[in-house]
């Protein structure tokens, strides 16, 4: 017996030219039957940090934009394709993610990674450590996210 899963469509956006157009994009995404809407977690704006990445400028901060999209929709799952673990304290992001998921009835799509754009780290004044160090921090952060999402006690070493 096969366990077929429905094919899903997602949309990702980085920017908007007005709050009204942002709300329209979110509503249209849900109205067209898309399953998910994603943002990215970058500080990138026009300048030297952006040029080597070939990314478009990222004008919207992921957390408040996700919260707005979740509030505006009823069924659409919304999230950040991948939050960069080093860009904010993991306990703060874990609490924000758990809150958005709870208040939206479980519609937050949550992804997190170790980070990879060195020029963005440098532009933000964040040390770009070797991958094993970034991955070790990510591993501990995942424990925080799991604790907040499940209501379990939170224990971190550092």
Describe the structure.
- There is one protein chain.
- By secondary structure, this protein is an alpha/beta fold.
- The protein is 41% helix and 13% strand.
- The protein contains 5 helices and 4 strands, in the order βαβαβαβαα.
- The chain has one domain (10-150): TIM Barrel (Alpha-Beta Barrel).
- The radius of gyration is 17 Å and the shape is globular.
- The model has no long low-confidence stretch (mean pLDDT 89).
| Helix fraction bin | 40-55%
Mean pLDDT, all residues: 89
Percentage of residues in DSSP E strands: 5-15%
Count of DSSP strands: 4
Global outline: globular
* Largest sheet descriptor: 4 strands, parallel
Tell me the CATH architecture: Alpha-Beta Barrel
What string, H for helix and E for strand, traces the elements in order? EHEHEHEHH
CATH domain topology: TIM Barrel
The rounded distance between the terminal residues' Cα atoms is 47 Å
Stretches with pLDDT under 50, minimum 5 residues: none
Class by alpha and beta content = alpha/beta
What oligomeric state do the depicted chains represent?
single chain
Spatial strand arrangement across the major sheet: 1-2-3-4
Please identify the top-level CATH class.
Answer: Alpha Beta
Say which CATH homologous superfamily is assigned.
Luciferase-like domain
Number of domains: 1
What is the number of helical segments per DSSP (H or I, 4+ residues)?
A: 5
**Cα-atom radius of gyration:** 17 Å
SSE blueprint and pairings:
Elements: E1 10-12, H1 19-31, E2 36-39, H2 62-72, E3 77-84, H3 90-103, E4 108-113, H4 118-124, H5 131-150
Parallel strand pairs: 1-2, 2-3, 3-4
Helix pairs in contact: 3-5
């Amino acid at each position: 017996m096969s366990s077929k899963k429905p094919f899903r469509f997602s949309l990702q956006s980085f920017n908007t030219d007005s709050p009204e157009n942002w709300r329209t994009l979110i509503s249209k995404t849900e109205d067209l039957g898309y399953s998910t809407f994603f943002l990215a977690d970058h500080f990138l704006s026009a300048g030297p940090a952006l040029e080597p990445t070939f990314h478009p400028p990222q004008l919207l901060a992921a957390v408040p934009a996700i919260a707005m999209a979740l509030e505006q929709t009823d069924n659409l799952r919304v999230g950040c394709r991948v939050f960069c673990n080093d860009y904010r304290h993991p306990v703060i992001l874990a609490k924000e993610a758990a809150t958005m998921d709870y208040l939206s009835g479980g519609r937050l799509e949550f992804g997190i990674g170790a980070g990879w754009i060195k020029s963005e780290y440098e532009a933000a004044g964040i040390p770009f450590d070797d991958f094993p160090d970034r991955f070790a921090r990510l591993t501990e952060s995942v424990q925080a996210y799991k604790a907040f999402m499940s209501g379990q006690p939170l224990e971190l070493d550092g």
